[in-house]
Design brief:
The chain has 5 helices and no strands. By secondary structure, the chain is mainly alpha-helical. The two termini are 21 Å apart. It is elongated and about 55 Å long. The protein has one domain.
Length: 99
């Protein structure tokens, strides 16, 4: 739940939106999965706002994650498994001490 709220906040703060073209592409992807029933699938999404929202949500989340990855600065550093465990334990202890 928290992750969804965080992604939503980041997306809204940075004016990220789902375009109609992206939604249409997703509908067509869904329609292709049911050969011979494409028109029914299209009408289903057109007539059902909740179904349409279920397509928009993952598109929006993907856009937010892509945005975060673009903004992230990644530094690679080689470490042994022991060093990684020590670092994780130190961060967990630090987080627990702040509570």
């Amino acid at each position: 739940m928290r992750l969804g709220l965080l992604l939503s906040h980041i997306g809204e703060t940075n004016s990220l939106t789902v375009t109609q073209e992206e939604v249409n592409r997703s509908i067509m992807d869904q329609a292709r999965q049911l050969p011979g029933q494409e028109q029914m699938v299209i009408e289903y999404y057109r007539d059902n706002p909740q179904a349409m929202a279920s397509l928009q949500a993952p598109i929006f989340e993907d856009k937010v994650v892509d945005f975060i990855l673009e903004m992230a600065k990644v530094d690679e550093k080689e470490m042994s498994p022991e060093e990684l465990n020590e670092m994780a334990e130190a961060e967990a202890k630090e987080a627990a001490d702040k509570k």
